[in-house]
Model the fold of this input.
Amino acid sequence: MIRVMVCGAYGKMGREVLKAVYNDGDLDLVGAMDVNSGFADIGELIGKGKTGVIVGNDLETVIHSTKPQVMVDFTNPDAVMPNIRCAIANGVCPVVGTTGLSVSNIEEVKQLCKEKQVSALIAPNFAIGAVLMMKMAQDAAKYLPHVEIIELHHDQKLDAPSGTALRTAELITKTRGSFRQGHPEEVEKLAGARGSDYEGIRIHSVRLPGYVAHQEVIFGGLGQTLTIRHDSISRESFMPGVVFACKKVINLDGLICGLEHILN
Done:
């Protein structure tokens, strides 16, 4: 049994992670943390009755009292780095689904893992279908280099573009390189009308109630278009990937970025 704790336990993703870890026979849900904690029993959050495991509001205290091997973090961009630092400092392996981390953040985590000899996994998306979408998009870019990305999320998401969109653009760029798309004299009548720009790839972010997490990658070629789309209909779609990551992370070497690297 792998001992797991969850950060962001009161959030929508946090509650799904609690249920997924609790229901898996190879994982032991030993602790949870949320800064808004009312010290509820986790069983009350996931409809399982009293479990004796209480949600704390101080990460270091929870780690010391529950001694987890793995910390799953679905919090927010402001909280995630302090949580990762605390976990690694205490020898706990982070599995991070919180997006909004910068390049410098990633480098810091990599260095901390090296110094403390702790492994970690950071993934922009834990849905297996989303990982396949990114891989297919990277392959398609070999033949259809003109591409734009549209990502659609719920209106409470804090960062834009999404981590999945940025990771998709990064993978495509590794295949096709960087170049400017569209007419060279193109003019935006409203700033941002053409979306953000990642190495010539336009990324468009939609934020509306009713969505969970969705992305389409549209390729254009002579007389044709190709659209690769993934839809997460509910947050349950991320849970098989999260559970899989919890089981694998303790045997990794240092920091791994992207679920695709452990699926193989």
Notes: The chain has two domains: 2-122+236-263, 128-233. The radius of gyration is 20 Å.
